[in-house]
Amino acid sequence: MPRVNRRIPVDLYVNKMINGVPFLARTRDLSREGVFVHRLLEPVAPNGAHIAVEFALPGTAEVIWAEADIVHDTDNGQGLRFRELTPKQTRLIEDFIANTSAVG
């Protein structure tokens, strides 16, 4: 099944909250629906686990705090699907993807 939302490659640091404890992670790609994060030093959280992520997009001062579900797990990272972003968060992500896509 093809992806509904386009993903763009992006390398950002994010705080990934597991059981209320922040762990530093790096992104590989981003879409309106979710983000893939490389696992650094953190406890294992299984597929289906509910976590939170915190990050800022380049060129913005706005911090995005989003709840997410782990939907895909690999040896070096996890695919996260956002839960109910606010309209402002959605717009920030969509604008960032559109502007990045136009350049690259």
Structural class: alpha+beta
Strand share of the residues?
Answer: over 45%
Rounded mean pLDDT score: 88
Give the N-terminus to C-terminus distance in angstroms: 25 Å
Order of helices and strands: EEEEEEEH
CATH architecture: Beta Barrel
What summary fits the major beta sheet? 6 strands, antiparallel, barrel
Percent helix: 10-25%
Order of strands, main sheet, comes to: 2-3-4-7-6-5
What is the level 1 CATH name? Answer: Mainly Beta
Number of domains: 1
| CATH domain topology | Thrombin, subunit H
β-strand number? 7
Low-confidence residue ranges: none
CATH superfamily: predicted glycosyltransferase like domains
What is the radius of gyration? 13 Å
